[in-house]
């Protein structure tokens, strides 16, 4: 299935679906997990030690603000990992007393 029918460069956008904290989220093949999350309207998906919301900051995998758990693997940089159809993503919290 194509999402774009008249792309001037002939791209064929293929939809994918990931699960974020138990909820299905739609994306397009080739997007990073951060890209899928941002496109779905999510701006933050983890909290730092103080409880402040964190999301994408640098967008190139240097700052580690966008960490998520993907398919059971903790501390994956959402901005550097391409989303794959069927991925299970869990947000993280580093707030004091919360090990998730």
Automatic annotation (TrEMBL):
Source organism, top-level taxon: Bacteria
UniProtKB keywords: Oxidoreductase
InterPro entries: 2Fe-2S-bd_N, 2Fe-2S_ferredoxin-like_sf
A molecular function GO annotation: iron-sulfur cluster binding
UniProt feature coiled coil, ranges: none
SUPFAM superfamilies: 2Fe-2S ferredoxin-like
UniProt cross-references to Pfam families, sorted A to Z: Fer2_4 (PF13510)
Name this protein carries in UniProt: (2Fe-2S)-binding protein
Organism: Actinomadura decatromicini
Phylogenetic placement of the source organism: Bacteria, Bacillati, Actinomycetota, Actinomycetes, Streptosporangiales
């Amino acid at each position: 299935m194509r999402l774009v029918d008249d792309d001037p460069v002939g791209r064929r956008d293929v939809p994918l679906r990931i699960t974020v904290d138990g909820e299905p989220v739609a994306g397009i093949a080739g997007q990073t997990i951060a890209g899928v999350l941002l496109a779905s309207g999510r701006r933050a998906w983890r909290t730092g030690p103080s409880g402040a919301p964190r999301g994408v900051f640098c967008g190139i995998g240097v700052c580690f603000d966008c960490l998520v758990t993907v398919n059971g693997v903790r501390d994956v940089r959402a901005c550097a990992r391409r989303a794959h159809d069927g991925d299970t993503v869990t947000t993280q919290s580093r707030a004091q007393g919360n090990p998730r």
